[in-house]
């Protein structure tokens, strides 16, 4: 029995390059070259192995655009003409090189090869799809599909758009092969959270991602890339094995760059004089590859030696042996790690074999023969077969990833090509509107227009155009193709909206782009539309923008928006929150009555932060446009902090929706000034948010003064509404005995900090104070709960000071553990250097914990020294140690303070805060007079 298995996956794809309007389209050569140099050589090799009864299995993805071209009579005819000309050119080369022995031998080999390829093509009468079917039926190849036009799915705007690409790809596969595929190749291996759900809807069982897609999955899969992982929907993801794959595809470190292999870039189309080669290049004299190349790679310089097929064959055998050795090593490594048959997944573009790497098909043939004849450590399989072997694959969730440069969207979204997406997204939204508007339409002419509009949109979405713009090859063609399809889409849209179908123009466009005869318009329809409900709407509706919302919780903002929004629902408002997507959470859901819309952001957080924020705002605006297009109207938009400023401002001006902003903190306050370019940009966004907003809400009198000063705001534009706390969220399941294990031992008293580990939270002060506290109370254990960029620095400081074992950095803790810590801590400290309000301090007091807080910001408003807690001087470690020691010295008094604190924070009730916020909305909407609204009414708790 084999110790492990190899899943070899070839992805055959070309963009749709059919040009019936002219005979000399250079781009059609992409198809003809792939047929001549890759597809037929691979098919011939597979048939040869099957005839020799070599046991092998592999997976081949055939893109719908490629299938459309391979089955197109016009392109079949032109492909044969291309082969005829190659045979003719090879015959002439035999004559021209008769006195050049090195080249003559090669010309003879090309003559033989081209004739064999032509014979193969004629044997199938140009129907290469039938050859793929035969290999499928013999059990040697599992065929799968990809998205309709190879759209880069992470950048498709709507769920309807992604679904249409996926569904059309599956239906085209069914049309050609009579069955549904079990797997799907994601274009550019581009995965984003939630895509698996759409695949599962269509019965797709697996797909492939690049290695980092699984490496960064959570929880981290124990088997790494040696096993597929299963997502919550049950769809499996297979991870590319980097070590094995790079040996094959890399021209720098892999086999294709060997000095004895054929040089791709030296072709007689460029080398021969124009008189000789003229009849076989473009009629205008544009030179291009012919497929006849006489030189080997030789080295890095311009000097090239003649190609020697025998040397290349010997290298191919050596490289097949080397790969098998590497594969065996990986199998043994995987066996020890998984305790089962590991799988090595190696995906490649099919065109690598033969077209880019001339010896690729021969290498693959030698490898498969060696695996069959020489050893039994590893055998080939397909992902579908492997999934049937076990039932307990690791379960996890994955973030967005691709196999492109840098592993994310860098290739398809950059300065050279980012201009295409506003146009694509606008057309995509309009397509859904048209599909929904004309649902059930029986008129055949209207159906034809709708179907052609879908084709044009999908063709514009092809990832190939953005890829070409990035690679700077045939850029003009890629730009023209994108613009042509978008313009054709809008011409068709005009026919529908004006109710004047130009049949002549429609027939012309249909003849140009005649793929996907069974394209399904219904895939673009909105699944739910509130249209029709608006005319009778009596419930006020607010649109909230916040970059974080549970389960994404980075700081206090997430909890604030969550509590405010759900309590506003209780007050009779309909609340829609637009926020960032988070792994494991649906893009659309209702949470405690709140409509939550999570948008996909291309850039991962942390890489190019301002760029990420820009993408977030663009996606938020697109999401709002979708809601408005589908029938929603909003009374007010409420923006939370500067990260959503651009979206809020755009929404305000584009749709005339009044805007309120809440400033939760300022960049100036966090950093004690503005010191860097990034801080200056953030500061400017904060200023613009306060400028554009009709009302600005802050959480404390301290923040009111800060915002008023920093942004030169008039006093009567500001409203002070404190943060709140929900006692229900902190109540224990029962009030029985609780322990603090594993955070502390039974005899240890916990001094607790909860918050983000950033400099302004003052943990550095706590660590300095720890020495004095421990000297007096050696039974203390410091528990620091939270995550942030300062964690490692503060861990190191604790170790340097010699009491690392007395300080536990607990990282992120669950709500249950947080509540248990708060209820049982001897003291909870908040030594902030800057704190606009401090929700966690309220939570600690609500849970009945004695608190020590810095006398800064909103904390100073909440805590009265010696009445419901103690205060310290900000940044003063001795002051902090003194206050903590006082509470540890007298636990009875500490509990009396804690009880007073618990009673005092009852005034920070979310129902009251929600009503105060609604009062601000009503003032902006003109539903109450200025005299009905005063700051004292909003925050009576802060005016004593």
TrEMBL record:
Substrate binds at residues 240, 257, 403, 464. GO terms for biological process: alpha-glucan biosynthetic process. The keyword Chloroplast does not apply. Residues 424-524 form the 1,4-alpha-glucan branching enzyme C-terminal domain. Signal peptide: none annotated. The active site is at residues 188, 349. CDD domains: GH57N_AmyC_like, GT4_PimA-like. Pfam families: BE_C, Glyco_hydro_57, Glyco_transf_4, Glycos_transf_1. Coiled coil: none annotated. One of its GO terms (molecular function) is 1,4-alpha-glucan branching enzyme activity. Keywords: Carbohydrate metabolism. Residues 7-390 form the Glycoside hydrolase family 57 N-terminal domain. One of its GO terms (cellular component) is extracellular region. InterPro entries: 57_glycoside_trans_central, BE_C, Branching_enz_MT3115-like, Glyco_hydro/deAcase_b/a-brl, Glyco_hydro_38_N_sf, Glyco_hydro_57/38_cen_sf, Glyco_hydro_57_N, Glyco_trans_1. Residues 554-729 form the Glycosyltransferase subfamily 4-like N-terminal domain. The keyword Cell inner membrane does not apply. Residues 747-903 form the Glycosyl transferase family domain. PANTHER family: 1,4-ALPHA-GLUCAN BRANCHING ENZYME RV3031-RELATED (PTHR41695), 1,4-ALPHA-GLUCAN BRANCHING ENZYME TK1436 (PTHR41695:SF1). Belongs to the glycosyl hydrolase 57 family. This is 1,4-alpha-glucan branching enzyme.
